[in-house]
Amino acid sequence: MTLPEPIEIVFRETAPLKHPRGRRLPIYLWPAMNPGKLSDADAERLVAELDRRGVGLICRWDHNRFEDSLAQALPVARAQRKLGLPINIDATPCMYAFFNGDASTAHIDDAGKPFWDPSFGKADMGCPFAVEHRRADIRGRIERFADAYALAGLEPGFVFADWEVDGPIAWNDAWEASKRCKRCRERIPEIGNFLAFQKALYDLRADMQRDVYAEPLLRRFPNVLVGNYGVYPHDGFRYWYDYFEREEDWYPGIRDGKALYRHWSDEFTGTGYTFAMPVVYTWARMWNWYDFDNADYRWFRPMLLAATNAGKHTPSNVPVIAFVHWHTTDPPKPPDPAMKQMSEWAYQELLWHMLLRGVDTFFLWCPADESAEEVRLLHPVWAAAQEYGAFLEKGRPVCFDVPDRPGTVISGLLLGDRLLVRRTDFVKNGKEVMMPIAGREVSIPAGTGCRVINVQAGAPISSERKP
């Protein structure tokens, strides 16, 4: 069969798994989406070949081309059902946009004049309390696809959306715009308090996602994993900035070097989402947050903080599916000659630590011209980790420390008396490190790689290190 070039790249840059995936989630790759219209036989062959590599094929729901979307997605869904694999869906187009440019969705000033907030790079960001009438349209798109799948006897297993620059968002000039807006002032009595303003917006944002997206799916498919980009349980702080978000000194948060980790309201709880989706990218602005001589650790620290935030605070029965990206994300224009891209070694070490801190699987995002390198770096780590399937399924993360300077990073999953541990040294250190694990001091030997340690004995079960 003739396949789109992105899927051909996935085949070229991956190999069949040496260790079975079992019932664990597949890995998701941005290039492994939307294979086009296939016969049932071709769809089954493609799904099966990708599954040999542990890759879950995704098809998109686009309400603007409903019949064509179904014609492309249903053969893949039938093949996934037949092979006992999750049916994977990208519902992003259906979610856009609440702010559709209609004047009825704008902010309104004291003179009754509509106005917009242009600070997000989107010309029609308006009043978060003026989009109630948009809910039915968005919900109807999701329901139409969901009903078509239900009618065909197909149950989606994984549905995600990349819904970002739309709806209520508290950053940039949003607070100033809302203080100017008569409607916002009426709806948020404590609008002069930024944290009260932020909570009101994220409570509303969560309810919108629940109402139009999560609930219609869960009502029809109670076991579906449904979630959205950047929405996950956390400790009340945000360790990354999206491309459309400005860094502002006045945000309440934690100062760390030149970084300001912002206070962040809980959005996840109100959505009803059944998986968490943190974002762990090499955002270019991270480079200037720290002055470490070790260039890799400038990236590694904030990225591991973001991953740890989700892994530590997400309940064990809620999968963590993390968006990842290696190439420097949203780089400055013109390029900064002093900025060094994160090394391949450090990125792959980060991926290992994420898996040992509660991340269940990865979702690669990347532009098309980066696909080959991104897949080549990501897939081998995830594939090698399948050797430790029992730990990935049932192990409990026990190491969440992120050193504030380059040093030794340790992560581990505890299963009974056995600890799967990985140690990464950003400064030379040939000494053992003692760590409290399950009420005991456990020796973590020097050297990069995975080890399985008997916690009772406090010594490695095998001296062999796995890369």
Radius of gyration: 23 Å
What's the overall average pLDDT, rounded? 96
Beta-sheet strand percentage?
Answer: 15-25%
CATH class of the largest domain: Alpha Beta
Number of domains: 2
In one word, what is the shape?
globular
How many strands in all?
20
List keywords for this structure.
467 residues, alpha/beta, TIM Barrel, 13 helices, 2 domains
What would you note in describing this structure?
With 467 residues, the protein is of the alpha/beta class. It folds into two domains: 5-395, Alpha-Beta Barrel (TIM Barrel); 396-467, no CATH class. The protein contains 13 helices and 20 strands. The chain has helices at residues 5-13, 40-52, 66-82, 92-95, 135-151, 174-180, 182-187, 194-220, 268-271, 295-313, 344-355, 371-385, 389-394, and strands at residues 28-29, 58-60, 88-90, 107-108, 114-115, 158-161, 225-228, 237-238, 253-256, 259-263, 279-283, 321-329, 361-364, 396-397, 408-415, 418-425, 433-437, 440-444, 449-454, 459-460. Strands 14-15-16-19-20 form a five-stranded antiparallel sheet. A four-stranded parallel sheet has the order 1-13-12-11. A four-stranded parallel sheet has the order 2-3-6-7. Strand 17 and strand 18 form a beta hairpin. The longest helix is centred in the middle third of the chain and has 27 residues, at 194-220. It is globular, with a radius of gyration of 23 Å. The mean pLDDT is 96.
